[in-house]
Specification:
alpha+beta, Aminopeptidase, 7-stranded mixed beta sheet
């Protein structure tokens, strides 16, 4: 049975590394503000094995005027468990977490070109043009407004 719960920042590395930073040093899995008090990390567990992660940063983006803004970052599901609905469950869990305390917030993210359709299916919208993140690849700025 799938269980989603808060995890420590360093717990995310075991999933971030093979999915998002394959072939790079493990240190590249540490993101700025991972340790911030306002940052929350969630893990998806199947039979007590961590198979998916996502992080939520309280961070503003000048593309949005909303007072409450959160960046979704480090979304990763181990390859053997992809395309089974686990990522969708993680995102919904994250959105419910935001909705519980910060109604009328915007969640934004830099979606890899290969993942933007996944977020589009979850009602995230693209804004602006595709752009390149050095050493990682092409991305879209996407967002979703959570309203009460």
């Amino acid at each position: 049975m799938l269980q989603i719960k808060k995890i420590q920042p360093t717990d995310t590395y075991s999933v971030r590394h093979p999915v998002l930073r394959k072939g790079k040093a493990i240190e590249t899995c540490q993101f700025d503000h991972d340790q911030a008090v306002s940052t929350v990390h969630f893990g998806a567990f199947l039979d007590e094995k961590l198979i998916g992660v996502v992080s939520l940063f309280e961070k503003s983006n000048s593309a949005f005027e909303d007072k409450k803004q959160f960046q979704l970052r480090g979304m990763a599901i181990l390859e053997d468990y992809q395309k089974k609905g686990i990522g969708e469950k993680l995102i919904i869990f994250l959105e419910n977490h935001v909705n519980a305390s910060d109604r009328n917030a915007v969640i934004w993210l830099n979606a890899r070109e290969s993942a933007y359709k996944f977020y589009e299916k979850l009602n995230y919208s693209v804004t602006g043009n595709i752009f390149d993140i050095q050493d990682i690849g092409k991305h879209y700025l996407m967002f979703k407004r959570l309203e009460s």
